[in-house]
Amino acid sequence: MILRHLMAISLTLVIAGCNPFSEAPSMMDEYVERVARVLDGEVSLSELPEIHLMPRRRDRRLDMPDLELGILDFLSLYGCQLQFVVGERNSVMGRVMDPLNRLRYELRFIEAARDCLPEIDRENLRESVEQAIDSKLESLPIAIWNATWATEEIETLFTLSKGYFPVAAEGNPVSDLSADINRLNSTVQALLEGRLDQSLEYVGEVHQRWQAEFRAGQLLNSAGLLIARLDDATAIIRSRLGERPLCLDGKPNSQSKIVQSMFFSVYIETVQPYMSDVRRAREELIRPLATLSEIQSEVRTESFRGWSSQYLASAGGNSLWQDLDRAMAEHTTSWQQLLEQCGLRPGS
How many CB atoms are closer than 10 A to CB 297? Predict the structure, then answer.
């Protein structure tokens, strides 16, 4: 078993170009191996937790009620802008609108219908248009949901096929995405509150960025990796805590100096900064994405609700991020207890 894990580590190092700290998987595997080495423990790399893709698009997409004016009423609205809006929807291209364009259409319909009401003399036609407006307002949350969480583009943002969040990345890899989501949240909240005069011109660029930057999926992968490897290293430290003390009478010795050196050179200088990067990116990207899900909780699908509670929510029984917080806290405590045996606890 140990030999197999050591071979796996060796292979990872080759893949990482002989620098185990350049990529997250090799860095974390190497970290566990070094903890085991300095504490005379056994290397045991556990299976990474399975990260699930978000539900399929067909399971996320909500059906929009198809309400249009009758042909006679449509013809009678000649000269009213609503005529052209409905005509757009009834065109060949209108029948295959993508979710964002469908949302734009729904908003244009409501605006044009409201503008058209004062020009309508026929009572029955006015009532039909008013009913159409009410129906469009009622189904607007569905159109908003489809234009955010049921898009093809957001699947790329959460793809799990692009590896892990980068180690020691230059700048902030999620800054643009974070700004996008926060702006989108403001727009969605305003629309849901009935303030329909919101510009959607920028949303197409947001979708393009989702297709080009897959940071959310990388963060999910990295969270799972950190949970597994921190728990692996914690188990090694706890095993040593349950055996002979690292130091007798609290006095440092040659082994404790080696342990302390590894603690600072590997954990403090490489692993901890990566943990901080993942945590910061989680706050800047995953948290506003969780908000985008929560503010649409009335319409989101049941399958997405379960996925969201696991991969977007910060807390809860099956929250990935709560499990990461636990793994980080337990690992920190284990190190403190170990180094305290030698009077070497940081900050003491």
Answer: 9
Query: Comparing C-alpha atoms, which of 213, 262, 224 is closest to residue 47?
Result: 224
User: What pLDDT, on the 0 to 100 scale, is given for residue 1?
Assistant: 42
Quickly count: other Cβ atoms within 10 Å of residue 134's Cβ.
Answer: 12
> Do residues 203 and 184 touch, judged by C-beta distance below 8 A?
yes
- Nearest one of 274, 258, 270 to 344, comparing CA atoms: 258
Co-location of 68 and 140 in the same domain: yes
b/e map 221-239, b = 16+ CB within 10 Å: bbbbbbbbbbbbbbbbbbe
What is the rounded CA–CA span in Å between residue 247 and residue 242?
13
DSSP string, 31-80: HHHHHHHHTT----PPPPPPPPPPPPHHHHPPPPP-----HHHHHHTTTS
Tokens, residue 95: 């029948």
Length of the chain, in residues: 348
Residue 35's CB: how many other CB atoms inside 10 A? 29
Mean pLDDT of 13-27: 76
Closest CA to 278 of 327, 218, 206: 218
Question: What torsion, rounded to 10 degrees, do the Cα atoms 280, 284, 289, 291 define?
Answer: 100
pLDDT in tens, 110-129: 998 899 888 888 887 788 88
Kindly state whether residue 90 falls inside one of the protein's structural domains: yes
271 is a domain residue: yes
Domain count, the chain: 2
